[in-house]
Amino acid sequence: MEKHVNFGSRMGAIFAAAGSAVGLGNIWRFPMLVGDNGGAAFILIYIMCILLVGIPIMVGEFVIGRHTQSNMIDAFRQLAPGKWWRIIGVMGIGVAFIILSYYLVVSGWTLYYAYSSFSGALSNPDCDYGAFFGDYVANPWLSLISAVVFMLMTHLIIIRGVQEGIEKCSKILMPMLLLIIGILVVCTFSMPGINEGLTFLLKPDFSKLNFSVILAAMGQAFYSLSVAMGCLCTYASYFNKNTRLVSSALSVSSIDTLVAILSGFIIFPAVFSVPHVEANAGPGLVFQTLPYVFNMAFGNIPILGYIFSGLFYVLLFLAALTSAISLHEAVTAYVLQNWKMSRKKASTIVSACAMTLGIFCCLSFGVLSHWTIFGLTIFDLFDTVSSNIILPLGGVLLALFVGWYLNRELVRQEITNNGEVSQRIFPIIIFLLRWVAPIAILSMFIKGLIEMFNK
Ligand code: PFF
Could you give the CA distance from residue 294 to residue 274 in angstroms, rounded to a whole number? Predict the structure, then answer.
């Protein structure tokens, strides 16, 4: 079994955690929610959710991880021996494994689209983008190969370990991701739809705000920060004793929110530059609408469209990779610490099992599309159960555990680094964890359940 290792630098720790948070959700889901729900008014509500619910839970997870120096399951075993609280750890690692197996599939798509952009397939003026995507996902070999290649990349990073693998890669990939976003944002200023795009995104429309919108903002904040899934707890177990937990949580959330908002600056000016294009959400937008839009948006300078499209899919791929690394590590750390085996062996077992489930998710877009449970394909089932049920439930329990159960002195020592950091924020975090976060997430959870059964 490997001996416990910490991240070598504060920067490395923050980039790794930010890498987990910044993912596909920031780039395709956040901008759409903003556009549909009141523009800047939604951004404001979202930031409140991050501050009042997301950050306190993230700090709680950091406290648990750094104090126990363990994966999420063992962390709860240590902090509440023999108590049912350990279900939170089991849910966290379980959901990380499930998300990993379907995340692989979409991540594989990003890889294939980056390749197709650079090979020129996506800049062909005769390309029917809807059919291109449909044929690709229904082709069992092509989509499986993409997922396997993506899994191998993740695997190769994980087996190199915490410092040499995760930290080193995060320190390279995250700045690369931020640089690409910067370049793409600058490019959008040469698009004809820049003004309309920015107005759509930023004009505050407070009349659109209602309870549902607030809950949607919270759901997104929660998913976007990757809280309650074992990833951040595992990463915090590699924090050293000088890492400031609250300021790290603030840095990670700021990077995550910045990427989400900038993604809107990239997508909407492009969409508004091309007439008759609907800005619909999700895979349809990213894999069918956007390739077309990128191709057309630069009008008379097609080379710009080619570069823009290639960089955009590389951006998606990098975001997916850093998130997948954190999901993989959450499970691998548990396997290697519990079954006392080498990192290489543990990681191989996790990769093989996740890939096996991933195969079913992949095929659920083609030959297995008729396999449904409650009307959902395997892919949709994994996504719905993990994001709508296990995650919020884990979040509520985590907030209650840190807010009410965990020894207050222990939490104070962790948050203040044994008194080195100011104590002022401590009572605020405890209040938010005790009252605000559980009530807020429970409302979101109940609404999600009602919507699911009403479908
Ligand atoms: N936070 C990621 C996003 O916004 O896309 C998604 C994600 C990453 C979920 C890592 C879960 C996870 F463990």
Answer: 9
At residue 427, what is the residue type?
A: P
Distance CA 49, CA 9 (A): 29
In angstroms, rounded to a whole number, what is the distance separating the alpha carbons of residues 220 and 74? 28
Q: Find, among 108, 433, 148, 122, the residue nearest to 291 by Cα.
A: 122
Count CA within 13 A, CB hemisphere, residue 216: 20
Q: Ligand 1, residue 319: give the atom nearest the CA.
A: 5
Residue nearest to atom 10 of ligand 1 (CA): 323
Report percent pLDDT > 70 for the chain: 98
Question: What mean pLDDT do residues 382-406 have?
Answer: 92
What is the model's pTM?
A: 0.95
- Which residue's C-alpha comes closest to atom 11 of ligand 1? 226
Q: Which two tokens stand for residue 293?
A: 């839009």
User: Cα–chain-centroid distance for residue 72?
Assistant: 18
To test the ligand 1 pocket, which listed residue (49, 97, 226, 255) has its Cβ within 8 A of the most ligand atoms? 226
Atom of ligand 1 nearest to the CA of 230: 13
Distance 222 CA to ligand 1 centre (A): 9
Q: What share of the chain is helix, strand, coil (3-state, %, to 5)?
A: 80, 0, 20
> How many residues appear in the chain?
455
For 75-133, how does the pLDDT look when each residue is reduced to its tens digit (9 = 90+)? Answer: 999 999 999 999 999 999 999 999 999 999 999 999 999 999 999 999 887 889 889 99
**Could you tell me the two tokens for 3?**
């001996």
Distance in Å, CA 386 to ligand 1 centroid: 11
Residue 55: partners with Cβ closer than 8 Å, 6 or more residues away: 225, 246, 249, 250, 253
Dihedral of alpha carbons 315, 289, 28, 373, sign: negative
The CATH number that domain 10-454 falls under is 1.20.1740
Categorize the per-residue pLDDT at 444 as very low, low, confident or very high, splitting at 50, 70 and 90. Answer: confident
Contact between residue 433 and residue 402 where contact means Cβ atoms under 8 Å apart: yes
Burial class (CB in 10 A: 0-12, 13-18, 19+), 341: middle
288 lines ligand 1 (CB under 6 A): no
DSSP 225-256: TTTTSSHHHHHHTT--TT--HHHHHHHHHHHH
Give strand pairing partners of 377: 372
Q: Whose CA is nearest to atom 8 of ligand 1?
A: 323
Query: Is 282 a residue whose pLDDT tops 70?
Result: no
